[in-house]
Design a protein that fits this description.
single chain; alpha/beta; Transcription Regulator spoIIAA; five-stranded mixed β-sheet; 3 helices; 34% strand
Length: 108
């Protein structure tokens, strides 16, 4: 998996690409999220439009990020999941936990 991050308008934006299967990159993404929370960043947009696949470890990474932000009164948004990832979110009922958005502009 490839990832990049940026902070824009006090929002952490994570761009994930490839397969989120919780390997070393998963730990690195969690570190980026933890660092942002420590800087009082309250919102996180995870751009998953380029993710092909997520396994159970990858789901754990997303839930851990969500927990970190919500514990500080923040929120996590999933941006543009692919059809296959959308189906996974429905099957696992994570679509009821995460806010799924189509555009970064939906986050204020």
């Amino acid at each position: 998996m490839k990832y990049s991050s940026e902070i824009k308008n006090d929002i952490l934006i994570l761009h994930l690409e490839g397969d989120l299967i919780g390997e070393n990159d998963g730990a690195n993404v969690l570190q980026v999220a933890s660092s942002a929370v420590q800087q009082n960043i309250k919102s996180c947009i995870i751009d998953i439009s380029a993710l092909r696949y997520i396994n159970s470890s990858g789901i754990g990474v997303l839930i851990t990020i969500l927990t970190k932000f919500r514990n500080k009164g923040g929120e996590v948004y999933l941006l543009n999941p692919s059809e296959s990832v959308k189906k996974l979110l429905v099957i696992t009922k994570l679509n009821a936990i995460f806010q799924v958005i189509r555009s970064e502009d939906e986050v204020k």
